[in-house]
Design a protein that fits this description.
The complex is a heterodimer of chains A (851) and B (620).
Chain A: H1 3-8, H2 13-23, H3 47-58, H4 66-75, H5 80-90, H6 96-105, H7 122-127, H8 131-147, H9 163-173, H10 182-189, H11 195-202, H12 209-217, H13 221-232, H14 245-264, H15 290-324, E1 335-339, H16 344-354, E2 359-363, E3 371-374, E4 382-384, E5 393-398, H17 418-440, E6 460-461, E7 471-472, E8 475-477, H18 481-495, E9 504-511, H19 534-545, H20 547-555, E10 565-572, E11 577-580, H21 588-613, H22 625-635, E12 653-657, E13 665-666, E14 671-675, H23 685-710, E15 724-726, E16 730-732, H24 745-748, E17 757-761, H25 764-771, H26 775-782, E18 787-791, E19 798-802, E20 805-809, E21 817-819, H27 822-827, H28 837-840, E22 848-850
Parallel strand pairs in A: 1-2, 1-9, 3-5, 5-8, 9-10, 12-14, 12-17, 17-18, 21-22
Antiparallel strand pairs in A: 3-4, 5-6, 7-8, 10-11, 13-22, 15-16, 18-19, 19-20
Helix pairs in contact in A: 4-15, 5-15, 8-14, 10-14, 11-14, 16-21, 18-20, 21-22, 23-25
Chain B: H1 7-21, H2 27-54, E1 60-70, E2 73-81, H3 83-106, H4 113-132, H5 136-154, H6 161-192, H7 210-230, H8 239-242, H9 248-257, H10 262-274, H11 278-301, H12 305-325, H13 329-348, H14 353-364, H15 376-389, H16 394-437, H17 444-467, H18 472-493, H19 498-526, H20 542-555, H21 562-572, H22 579-604
Antiparallel strand pairs in B: 1-2
Helix pairs in contact in B: 1-2, 1-4, 2-3, 2-4, 3-4, 3-9, 3-13, 4-5, 5-6, 6-7, 6-22, 7-10, 9-13, 10-12, 11-12, 11-15, 12-13, 16-17, 16-18, 17-18, 17-22, 18-19, 18-22, 19-20, 19-21, 20-22
Classes of the chains: A alpha/beta (851), B mainly alpha (620).
């Protein structure tokens, strides 16, 4: 193709490919599940404009169905006064009844047939040929074999130049072919063949290229998405593969031409020759219709029915606090810094209840230390910080003396002919015994992803760097004293822990153990790139204990008493266990205190397990604490348990402020809690840093759950039960199915699809400054992908951020129920009848005021 | 002792009936009754086996009751108990029990929890029926039940396209096996001149004439097709990976463990029949070896966990076939149990392979060497790689040669028939009826041509229903008419009493009527029941879906209607030299089931066409 002609046309190949990649799912291989806004491609638009546009183009369901909203309303979960308020503020007071009628009983056509796919449907209508059936099975198979990380025994014969080159080489070198048509074989081997020439054959006119390619790639967005993701970040595969999105399209077009040639001979014409109308612009504006307006009102009413409850609770709480007295300074037994993760919300409540003299705080679970980690004997580095950060540091594990155990039944030998025979004759019976064990005596095994196996408790870590030239692959090994001090200072200042240190300060990361669960990393710490945060907690504690670090901190005004000791630990959110690190370094005095605290932690874990058990129908909530705890532990190691925990289901709040805002509230494990003390930060300079990851991490988690919930078929992964692991990079439903990014139904069933409400305790103008610090951060707020409220600490007034300005919000309900005993509430819970939204979320409890 | 045998089938049947009437929300009751009855079955089985062993493990045979008998035709339910029964029954109960316990938690809150457990129980009943059967007729009942259970569980996620498509694919291969088995029954009847039990299967030496040897070879080849279809031997292997559409647990119990090994069981059962035929033995050994080699080499290139296990399992089954042909039955039984346990376990834990292997890679990864490509060996290894990825074209070839000719034929006929059908059909029917009434008066030659003509028209009706892309009601009517024509053709063929025709038609007429009713009901929804795509009506027409499914199964003569008996009778009346006629009838029976299930799948499976709710991509 002549270059000059090519550029003069409207069609430019790279533009189209870039555009396609932008809209494809961006999920990387499933071993590192990183939550993100599923519709990230639309984030530049306002939330409602974006979702309705995405729906029109790609056919996604983007809100609950109309009927579900109506059911939630009749259940009382959407409150009438809130609905009225939403209609009045959104429309007008006069039209209240008219809109209400439309919402409650209007009839609408909810059909959302997408724009994408219309052009390519032509093959079926004109030639009665099902191209998807003819092309996809072999395409997926070849692609999966190429990307395969370690399932197949005979691996794809790789060519160093990538996917297309490998296929070419196979074609040249073998006596058989993936293709049937001679023309296609020639095209494949011809160096002159490019995307344009193939599109000319099959589409025929450049005006239709973009639409055709969108139709084609969005007929299997899972596979296309993974190819695009791997092209941009090859290191997300352990066994790296060179593949480009361009190569994938080339092969797919060749297979399409091949199928057409094979079934129709050469008697078919390119698609454009039969088109009597111009191509449709997939991305042309979508006008809002009345149904959209109705959905917006319902969604807002649904969201505010909960938010208003929360805000009322906080307001009442604060008025009570000011009524009584000032905080009495008491000596604290310990301080514990947890991850902001909303699953830690309940354990913090329990430990505070059990030991009223302790203090808990929240900070993103990588504890401000960003690095790669290399386990002893490990051949790869694992990133332990939020996904967008690229660390310059490496921490290596030594002396772990941990021999990795093997599981003989996973051996690939059983899949071969001869060894397989011996295997079946002998191991088959062993498998029977293992099966019985799996069913009746589930226990931890090498086949189960164990959060505590990420780092060995006994090992030593290379945390300190004394020579900045000490590098490995351009990564500095460990942190210098200065670098440590900066990180410790940033974290402590950020959470407002700069004085009144208790003698023990725990940093408690979290991870999650689960069995038979390809999505296990979606349960781990989002701030650690979907991995357990044990190393971070341990590293931070080590740094904060370092005398030289402390002396630097002292010079900067943070005085940590010598009697204060930091201890790292990790909470397994599925098994409800906590493991602590470097306990042997504790002095005798600290040890004694630590022992006492351990008992309290254990009680808190018991209570936490019990609270969680109300969601699990297999556990009798009323049995003894020990029994509940045991059942919870067993879930995390049971091969037959598709819900080891419920992950981030129900998350809907993020509180950036002091613990006192929420301490006396029962928030049902729905709130990300990030400690921040406005008193140390009058001008908001720290707040900017605090707000930086909030949208991306918490908002990302929230929207991933939102979209997986409202459209579990297209945006979620569907039910887990038929999933088949494809090449160790993802899951699909069957042998020849498309990859399924997103979350499976077992993780989202209890989730209320509401956007995140972020509440920041500071003056509105300061909060505004903080979120405006960068356009990427501001986008989250101005485009309403999350809600934002500033709580003025002086006036106790709420300010809601909308269209760029903060305005006062007065809670409507102004009352919440009192709760005397969480445990009785837990025991009263009803098991869900079905996992249909209105049944499944019935147990999402309102806000209670704790007495 | 023999009398006890029937209890092994009564037990699952009773619990099946109970579970069917339990409300779907009562998860623990449903799973409880399934687990309980299978556990009871296992315990009873173990006690019985112990008792049997202590009594010198005799071969047991018990005739439960005769359903129908006339002249030399006797349809009776018969049980048989020997070493193979003991092993298959105990292993089957164990695996079914383990998987049910596994599923109790695994399937929790899944839409279709009850459907799953009821189907598992039905499967368990069918499986034990096959294992305990003492004659082909009894075995065949179980065999058909299993086929339907497979279909239902592959299409468990019926709102997606791929399960719907693949379930039809698998059932079409199963059906081929079923019909071969039916022909086996027919031929055996002609060899022995009576309905026999497995324990009578050894040919008396005086019977072995040249003629009989030829017939026995035919029987053996038919058995071979039935076994190959059920156990995914070559050339049918490619259905097995495609059957992994249901929940992991059902894949484990069906395609890892039990259903897939039934071919092996049938082979063991029929061994005495072909034991003395050297050529058949050679055929079996080569088929087994070839399957083992090709399936294991395909399994080497599989990059998905479940398909890898599927092909590896087929390879082992290939070896079992060799073992049986060599007469090493003890070894084959040990091999079966080992393979069943291993594959069940591997499938159940297949999702955990991801974290296990990734973890393993972190510590033990060795990069792949990029090999030089200029040696003769690399050319062959590349060739084999491509062949293996393409599964040796098994999937495409099978459909090209097995089904496409019939599809084309049906398509050719659809158009002319659509124009003329409503004039031709009454003519055909009255033609047939006239022949039937005039039976005694016309010459035999005329009679036989009448027979053939009606049989051909029946097949044409069925094939056009099979390829019908228009109205579902039209296709359904054709199937109804075809069944009428079929019965007439057989009635014309032999002295077939009116009573016998009624046995045959009684089930069909009810099934036809209820089917028609449900079709009209579904049509009410939005006047669209065109068969050119999947409609997914089970989204909002669950009851009609069930009714229509039952009607389909009735129409094709599943063992719960008298038609089943009728089909057997019908075959019995075909003389063994009427090759053309028997082929026509067999084809009719293959395609009548496929057409009926196709109508069911097209209407009730796949995505619901109205995009007013979240729904799956076609490719997912």
């Amino acid at each position: 193709m002549n270059q000059t002609i090519n550029t003069s046309k409207s069609y430019t190949e790279t533009d189209i490919l870039q555009k396609l990649k932008h809209f494809l799912p961006s999920q990387t291989p499933i071993k590192d599940f990183i939550h993100h806004n599923t519709l990230h491609a639309f984030q530049g638009m306002k939330f409602y404009d974006a979702i309705f546009k995405a729906s029109k183009i790609f056919g996604y369901q983007v809100t609950l169905e109309l009927n579900d909203f109506r059911k939630l309303y009749s259940q009382g979960r959407i409150k009438e006064n809130i609905l009225d308020h939403v209609i009045i503020t959104g429309k007008s007071f006069d039209s209240l009844n008219a809109w209400k009628e439309k919402l409650i009983s209007g009839k609408y056509n909810e059909d959302q047939s997408p724009r994408v796919g219309m052009l390519r449907a032509f093959w079926k209508s004109k030639y009665k040929i099902d191209l998807d059936n003819a092309v996809q099975p072999i395409l997926f198979r070849v692609l999966c074999s190429y990307l395969d990380q370690g399932i197949s025994l005979s691996r794809f014969p790789l060519h160093p130049d990538g996917f297309l080159a490998s296929i070419r080489e196979l074609e040249k070198n073998s006596y058989t072919s993936f293709f049937k048509s001679d023309r296609v074989k020639d095209l494949l081997l011809d160096d002159q063949t490019d995307l344009n020439s193939l599109l000319q054959i099959i589409v025929g006119h450049e005006d239709y290229f973009e639409q055709y390619l969108f139709d084609q790639q969005f007929s299997h967005q899972g596979w296309s998405g993974i190819v695009a993701a791997v092209e941009d970040a090859p290191h997300t595969l352990l066994d790296e593969r060179k593949i480009t999105f361009h190569d994938l399209i080339m092969i797919e077009l060749l297979l399409e031409i091949d199928a057409l040639d094979d079934q129709l001979g050469y008697s078919w014409a390119p698609i454009a020759t039969s088109m009597d109308h111009p191509p449709i612009d997939l991305f042309s504006n979508v006008d809002r219709n009345e149904l959209n307006e109705v959905m917006i009102l319902w969604q807002n009413a649904f969201e505010w029915s909960y938010y208003d409850d929360v805000l009322s609770g906080i307001k009442l709480q604060r008025s009570k606090n000011t009524n009584t007295s000032k905080e009495i300074p008491i000596e604290k037994t310990f301080q514990a810094i947890f991850c902001i993760d909303e699953r830690e919300c309940s354990i913090r409540r329990h430990i505070e209840h059990i030991d009223p003299r302790c203090e808990t705080l929240g900070s993103p679970g990588f504890f401000g230390v960003e690095f790669y980690f290399q386990a002893e004997g490990g051949l790869f580095y694992e990133k332990l910080c939020p996904a967008p950060v690229t660390p310059k540091y490496l921490i290596k594990e030594f002396d772990s003396n941990q021999k990795r155990k093997h599981e003989i039944l996973y051996s690939s030998k059983s899949q071969m002919l001869i060894t397989g025979t011996l295997n079946t004759l002998v191991l088959g019976y062993y498998a029977c015994i293992r099966l019985i064990q799996t069913l009746f005596f589930p226990k931890m095994s090498p086949a189960i992803s164990n959060a505590y196996a990420h780092m060995n408790k006994q090992s030593t870590l290379t945390i300190q760097n004394d020579n900045p030239d000490h590098k490995e692959n351009n990564l500095q090994i460990g942190f210098t004293i200065e670098e440590m001090a900066t990180r410790v200072e940033n974290l402590l200042r950020g959470i407002g822990l700069v004085q009144d240190f208790a003698s023990l300060v725990y940093t408690i990361a979290h991870g999650s153990s689960s069995a038979n669960n390809p999505h296990h990393s979606a349960h781990d710490c989002g701030a650690c790139s979907g991995r357990p945060g044990s190393v971070n907690a341990r590293v931070f504690a080590w740094m904060a204990n370092h005398p030289e670090v402390r002396s630097i901190l002292q010079s900067k005004g943070i005085q940590i008493p010598v009697t204060t000791f930091f201890v790292g630990g990790m909470h397994d959110t599925a098994a409800d266990q906590i493991e602590f690190y470097d306990e042997q370094k504790l002095s005798d005095h600290h040890k004694k205190q630590h022992q006492a605290n351990l008992l309290n932690f254990n009680d808190a874990l018991n209570a936490n397990a019990k609270e969680r058990s109300r969601r699990f129908s297999s556990i009798n909530t009323k049995q003894s604490l020990k029994g509940v705890r045991k059942s919870i532990l067993q879930r995390s190691v049971s091969m037959f348990e598709p819900r080891p925990e419920l992950g981030h289901g129900t998350n809907s709040l993020c509180i950036v402020g002091r613990r006192s805002i929420t301490k006396k509230l029962f928030l049902d494990r729905r709130a990300f809690l990030n400690s921040y003390d406005y008193r140390n930060d009058p001008d908001g300079s720290l707040l900017t840093g605090v707000m930086k990851p909030i949208g991306l991490v918490c908002g990302g988690i929230n929207l991933e759950y939102y979209f997986s919930r409202v459209d579990n078929y297209k945006l979620g992964a569907g039910t887990k039960l038929p999933h088949n692991v494809m090449g160790l990079i993802g899951v699909a439903n069957s042998s020849d199915g498309d990859l399924r990014p997103g979350l499976p139904v077992q993780m989202i069933e209890v989730h209320d699809p509401v956007r995140l409400l972020i509440l920041v305790e500071h003056k509105p103008e300061i909060v505004l400054k903080a979120i405006q610090s960068s356009p990427e951060i501001y986008e989250w707020y101005i485009n309403e992908w999350v809600h934002l409220i500033a709580l003025d600490p002086v006036t106790n007034q709420f300010y809601y951020f909308h269209d760029g300005v903060f305005s006062v919000y007065l809670p409507l309900n102004n009352q919440v129920q009192d709760l005397n005993n969480t445990m009785t509430l837990v025991e009263q819970s009803l098991k869900m009848e079905t996992n249909y939204i209105t049944d499944a979320t019935r147990e999402n409890l309102p806000v209670y005021s704790l007495n | 002792m023999e009398l006890l045998l029937s209890y092994f089938l009564v037990l699952p049947l009773i619990s099946l009936l109970i579970s069917f009437f339990l409300p779907a929300k009562r998860e623990s009751h449903i799973s409880g009754i399934v687990i309980g009855s299978i556990a009871l079955h296992l315990v009873a089985g173990l006690v019985f086996v112990l008792y049997w062993l202590l009594h010198g493990y005799p071969l047991l045979n018990s005739k439960l009751f005769t359903l129908y008998s006339t002249g030399s035709f006797e349809f009776f339910i018969d049980f048989h108990f020997d070493r193979a029964t003991a092993v298959f029954s105990i292993v089957g109960s164990m695996i079914a029990l383990f998987v049910s316990i596994f599923s109790r938690t695994y399937m929790h809150r899944e839409e279709g929890f009850k459907r799953y457990f009821v189907t598992i129980l039905l499967f368990f009943f069918g499986y034990q029926m096959v294992i305990f059967s003492g004659n082909f007729e009894t075995l065949f009942i179980g065999w058909e039940v299993l086929g339907i259970c497979s279909f239902l569980l592959i299409a468990f996620y019926r709102d997606r396209y791929l399960p719907a498509k693949n379930s039809l694919k698998v059932i079409s291969i199963y059906r081929l096996g079923d019909i071969c088995l039916m022909l086996v029954m027919w031929l055996i009847h002609h060899i022995f001149h009576k309905n026999i039990t497995f324990s009578q299967l050894i040919l008396p030496s005086e019977l072995i004439t040249y003629d009989h040897q030829l017939l026995t070879i035919c029987v053996s080849i038919l058995i071979m097709i039935a076994v190959a279809a059920k156990s995914a031997l070559l050339p049918f292997s490619s259905w097995l990976p495609r059957a992994m559409e249901g929940p992991t647990t059902s894949s484990a119990v069906f395609y890892g463990a039990l259903s897939i090994h039934l071919g092996v069981f049938l082979l063991l059962r029929t061994y005495p029949l072909w034991e003395s035929l050297f050529i058949i033995k050679c055929l079996w050994i080569s088929l087994g070896l070839l399957t083992a080699l090709i399936a294991s080499s395909i399994s080497r290139v599989q990059s998905t966990v479940k398909t890898q296990i599927a092909y590896a399992s087929i390879a082992q089954i290939g070896l079992m076939v060799v073992e049986i042909a060599m007469g090493w039955h003890g070894l084959a039984l040990i091999h079966f149990a080992g393979n069943a346990f291993l594959r069940t376990y591997q499938l159940l834990i297949s999702p955990s392979v991801l974290s296990y292997k990734i973890h393993d890679m972190v510590f033990n990864y060795k990069p792949l060497a990029i090999v030089s490509r200029n040696t003769w060996w690399s050319r062959w290894s590349d060739t084999f790689y491509v062949l293996n990825i393409k599964e040796w074209n098994l999937d495409t070839t099978l459909f090209k040669f097995l089904w496409n000719p019939f599809k084309k034929f049906g398509n050719r006929l659809t158009l002319p028939l659509n124009k003329t059908s409503y004039t031709i059909i009454p003519v055909m029917l009255s033609f047939g009826m006239a022949g039937f009434i005039a039976d005694d008066h016309v010459h035999h030659y005329v009679d036989h041509s009448f027979t053939l003509i009606t049989a051909i028209s029946a097949l044409i009706m069925i094939l056009t229903a099979f390829t019908e892309r228009g109205s579902a009601i039209r296709a359904w009517n054709r199937l109804g008419i075809a069944q009428g024509l079929l019965s007439i053709s057989v009635a014309l063929n032999e002295d077939f009493s009116f009573y016998q025709v009624m046995i045959y038609l009684s089930g069909i007429m009810i099934a036809y009527a209820t089917g028609l009713y449900s079709l009209y009901q579904v049509k009410q929804v939005d006047q669209d029941i065109i068969l050119d795509r999947f409609h997914g009506y089970s989204h909002n027409q669950k009851k009609m879906g069930l009714l229509f499914l039952v009607s389909c199964l009735g129409l094709i003569g599943l063992p719960f209607t008298p038609t089943f008996l009728g089909i057997d009778l019908l075959f019995f009346h075909i003389q063994y030299h009427q090759v053309l006629f028997v082929i026509l009838t067999a084809l009719s029976f293959i395609f009548i089931e496929l057409s009926a299930l196709r109508i069911y799948a097209r209407l009730f499976m796949g995505q619901y066409k109205k995009a007013d709710h979240a729904m799956a991509y076609r490719s997912s």
